[in-house]
Design a protein that fits this description.
The chain is α/β, with parallel strands linked by helices and 457 residues long. The chain is 31% helix and 27% strand. The protein contains twelve helices and 24 strands. The strands form five sheets. Strands 2-3-4-1-7-8-10-9 form an eight-stranded mixed sheet, with helices on both faces. Strands 15-14-20-11-12-19-16-17 form an eight-stranded antiparallel sheet, covered by helices on one side. Strands 22-21-23-24 form a four-stranded parallel sheet, with helices on both faces. The N and C termini lie far apart (66 Å). The structure holds guanosine-5'-diphosphate. One of its GO terms (molecular function) is GTP binding.
């Protein structure tokens, strides 16, 4: 049975190197030109298995099984928001994640938040222990690191400072969160053991090892999830809705199963119901050498096989939002697809309390992640919705506030406050927390709550 590419997401604390790592991964082909390059998708990059084998030949011997996956599909957008928005039925869209941790700084609030999110979605992950080039006395000739671990999980030739940072900043906090850390050849249960791969997104050191490790783990432990339904229609998730010159509103989507065909219908969930639209074009990015003019960025294709990122041009996409489930089906399968999507949306609905505050977010996934973090500290949520903060929302919160002054609160993650809502916020004296980092929102809210409770004494 054909296997699809595992979908890989990158998470971690701000400034620990997620963007740099993704850039470096995209440049892997430079090191393996003969093996063919990286295929650029919409919203993702595909690293073919031949490239991975080429750039880390000797690591391949460590794998007992043959690599039969076609490659890795790495999502280009880093961060928790991207990870949580990109969901599919029953969990995260990503099959496996890279948790980037600056080895010199160690676990930070967003690192812990990321681990909690990964755990909640039951997504296996590896740690890219980044910025090894900044370790005093680091000598890259000691590598490749992963081949030199001994039974005690120590690098025999490693510099002490490196060992200390690896242990104190990464292994110890992982253990404290209930994970073992080990070499991937010794991993028996991918949900309990985390592989650590020292890397430098600056020098590129360790990146081939990281890619090989992920490919190996996916092959060894996730094969069941990677069976491609070659007969089935395409299932995917909306990454972004974008206006494109000459095309109007388009959907960028990641397809995780099946095959999408030109001329089929796109069926997608939205905040105001399901949108069905006949596809005008399936588009992929044009390679640079085929691009005559920078506006001429996309190439129409007849079909797209999972796992892949694709742009969909179709009429009436105005109401579609990021993170929504999507299907691409022939006309006679529209009803079936609609039912599936309804189920997915219902499953994702967040349970609310009799009384409490209002939370809003840009996507269902991020709304769920925010709700989960707030629940952990006992916050009551009366209403949870995807979308911008409207005047109607504020008036509603004013009524929550009448029940209890502490419920006059809106927490808005990665979404806008509409101008007419701002006036109402002032009028009813509603407390609003806005931002795009969940832990920061939760922290600010907690601080405010403490001060309010103090005032009430
Ligand atoms: P992000 O916020 O996690 O996406 O982090 P960035 O990729 O933007 O990196 C934050 C800063 O760290 C930037 O100034 C990078 O140049 C730097 N940086 C990232 N990776 C490395 C690394 O491996 N070594 C060194 N020395 N600097 C790095």
């Amino acid at each position: 049975m054909a296997l699809r590419c595992p979908i890989v997401s990158v998470l971690g604390h701000v400034d620990h190197g997620k963007t740099s790592l993704l850039d470096k991964i995209r440049k892997t082909r430079v090191a393996a030109r003969e093996a063919g390059g990286i295929t650029q998708h919409i919203g993702a990059s595909e690293i073919p298995i031949d490239v991975i084998k080429k750039v880390c030949g000797n690591l391949l011997q460590m794998l007992k099984a043959d690599l039969t996956i076609p490659g890795l599909l790495v999502i280009d957008t880093p961060g928790h928001e991207a990870f949580t928005s990109l969901r599919k039925r029953g969990g995260a869209l990503a099959d496996i994640a890279i948790l980037v941790v600056d080895i010199n700084e160690g676990f930070k609030p967003q690192t812990i938040e990321a681990v909690n999110i990964l755990r909640q979605y039951k997504t296996p992950f590896v740690v890219a222990a980044n910025k090894i080039d900044l370790i005093p006395g680091w000598n890259s000739k000691e590598g490749p690191f992963v081949l030199n671990f001994n039974e005690q999980n120590q690098h025999p030739n490693a510099l002490t400072e490196f060992e200390i940072r690896l242990y104190e900043n990464i292994i110890k906090p992982l253990n404290e969160m209930g994970f073992n850390a080990d070499l991937f050849t010794r991993v028996e249960d991918i949900t309990k053991t985390v592989c650590i791969i020292p890397v430098s997104a600056k020098t590129g050191e360790g990146i081939p090892d990281l890619l090989m490790m992920i490919a190996g783990l996916a092959q060894k432990f996730l094969e069941q999830n990677l069976k491609l339904d070659v007969e089935g229609y395409a299932k995917g998730t909306v990454l972004e809705v974008k206006e494109e010159k000459g095309l109007g509103k388009t959907i960028d989507a990641i397809i995780y199963d099946g095959i999408a065909r030109r001329g089929d219908y796109v069926v997608v969930g939205g905040p105001n119901g399901i949108v069905v639209s006949k596809i005008k074009a399936l588009l992929k990015p044009k390679p640079l050498d085929e691009m005559r003019d920078p506006r001429d960025k996309f190439k129409p294709v007849n079909e797209v096989v999972a796992a892949a990122g694709v742009k969909i041009a179709a009429p009436n996409l105005e109401n579609v939002i990021a993170g929504s489930p999507l299907r691409i089906v022939p006309e006679d399968k529209i009803e079936e697809a609609k039912e599936e999507i309804m189920k997915e949306i219902e499953e994702a609905t967040i349970e609310t309390d009799e009384e409490g505050i209002l939370i809003k977010a840009d996507t269902l996934g991020s709304l769920e992640a925010l709700a989960n973090e707030l629940r952990k500290i006992g916050v009551k949520i009366k209403k949870a919705e995807v979308g911008e903060v409207s005047k109607k929302d504020v008036i509603e919160v004013a009524s929550f506030k009448q029940v209890n002054p502490l419920y006059g609160v809106i927490i808005a993650f990665n979404t806008k406050i509409l101008p007419d809502a701002k006036k109402e916020i002032e009028k009813y004296d509603i407390k609003v927390f806005e931002g795009n980092i969940i832990y920061k929102l939760v922290e600010d809210y907690e601080e405010w709550l403490k001060a309010e409770l103090e005032k009430m004494k």
